[in-house]
């Protein structure tokens, strides 16, 4: 049995002593946030020289491929190691089977190749799911009753993953929540020689009310029939998240993600404690929009809100965070 630790009592121990001076607060800080802990999500649009502000995400735009390359250079210069890409597929290319996801010249693949040519030192994370490509807005193929088909969808996700890996993606991030897709994608990547392409599994992705502005950004709002509760997780469940993570790790995921972020800090901590693997969080569009709304209303200081929330992810156990505030935070941290 370990000896009982006897703690000094007041006034011998004053916990405020180490908080008096800024240098001391920095010296005793338990959690460190740097630009290296940030991933910047970017939205891709068709055209050239295009910037399309997203009304529900103030300060965030869709960019044509040339603009995406400029953003990747900005990330590099600020010390942000990775960008995450999401396409706004033109409506004419959205079909029931999401076949545009398999097009080697789609928006996603063109952006990947352009970044790799111009800024090869920046990592590229690519979303694997069919909702940016389907006419019905679901993450997979649906039957006549509107139910998302698991195994048939996985087959398409494999093709989508190989398409992105061939274009130069560094991290494949399946966000669809189909059962068994991680192992099937891993086997396909290995067979195709993409042995160093990472998989970051959206392992615990909840059917959340915080995704609304994202659907505006990728053009899927209004397309969705019903909801995604038959494949994304119930927000009341925690033990189920651990089962999802265990499955994805067993199938070959290199890292896992919890999504959304702040409402699920408890899940992040449980995953980190249970598995000891790299855990990431997505500070999703609704979370970003709330911070921006609070700052605009004078209800909080934007800089302080951004750094405090991102530090909370790190404190909970995250290796990194996908956040639309990545550039703002990196500038604050570099000041």
- Structural classification: alpha/beta
| Spatial shape | globular
Return residue spans where pLDDT drops below 50 for at least 5 consecutive residues: none
Number of domains: 1
Give the fraction of residues assigned to helices.
Answer: 25-40%
Strand fraction: 15-25%
CATH architecture: Alpha-Beta Barrel
* CATH H-tier superfamily: Aldolase class I
Strand order, sheet with most strands: 1-4-5-6-7-8-9-10
In the CATH hierarchy, the third-tier topology is known as TIM Barrel
Biggest sheet overview = 8 strands, parallel, barrel
Q: What value does the Rg take, in angstroms?
A: 21 Å
For this entry, give a set of tags:
about 325 residues; alpha/beta; TIM Barrel; 11 helices; about 40% helix
What this model shows, in words?
The structure is a single chain. The chain has 335 residues and is an alpha/beta fold. It has one domain: Aldolase class I (TIM Barrel). It has helices at 22-27, 65-78, 107-118, 150-167, 181-191, 212-217, 239-250, 265-275, 285-296, 302-316, 326-334; strands at 38-44, 51-53, 61-63, 82-87, 123-128, 171-174, 198-205, 255-259, 279-283, 320-323. An eight-stranded parallel barrel has the order 1-4-5-6-7-8-9-10, surrounded by nine helices. A hairpin with a 7-residue loop joins strand 2 and strand 3 (61-63). It starts with 21 loop residues before the first helix and ends with a helix.
Write the layout of secondary structure elements.
Layout: H1 22-27, E1 38-44, E2 51-53, E3 61-63, H2 65-78, E4 82-87, H3 107-118, E5 123-128, H4 150-167, E6 171-174, H5 181-191, E7 198-205, H6 212-217, H7 239-250, E8 255-259, H8 265-275, E9 279-283, H9 285-296, H10 302-316, E10 320-323, H11 326-334
Parallel strand pairs: 1-3, 1-4, 1-10, 4-5, 5-6, 6-7, 7-8, 8-9, 9-10
Antiparallel strand pairs: 2-3
